[in-house]
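Final report, closing paragraph on structural work. Over the funding period we assembled a curated collection of sequence-structure pairs, and we close with a single example.
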Amino acid sequence: MQTHKGSCHCKRVSFEFDGGVGAAIECNCSICRMKGAIWYGTDDAHFRILSGVDDLALYQFGTMTAKHYSCKSCGVSPFSRPRIAPAMWVVNLRCVDGIELSGLEIQLFDGHHWEAAAQKLLQARASGAV
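Its predicted structure, as stored:
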């Protein structure tokens, strides 16, 4: 299993995760669209914050379910705990070393219409379509 490393811009916050990155998600909700993030999902067993825990700021809005983390120093958002699966992590692949986004299958998530998009995604996963 491949280990990927990443960080925020100033490198105070660094992290790693295990797994093969073949697909990612681009969300058009109000915050993800402004961040320009491309997300890859992983779990606690495969994700580790290596440095900078005390340098992280937490931002929550709306339902207060998702946890959006950013570096207090440079402002970059390297990872979050998403509303659709708050026990999971999503890593901003733009913060990961050596990831070529043009080579990935990027699935669109209509976060602008979050409720309907979440229901559709969860149904697709339950049926094995995703």
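Residues 3-126 form a domain with the Metal Binding Protein, Guanine Nucleotide Exchange Factor; Chain A fold (CATH 2.170.150.70). Residues 114-126 form the longest helix (13 residues). We thank the funder for supporting this effort.
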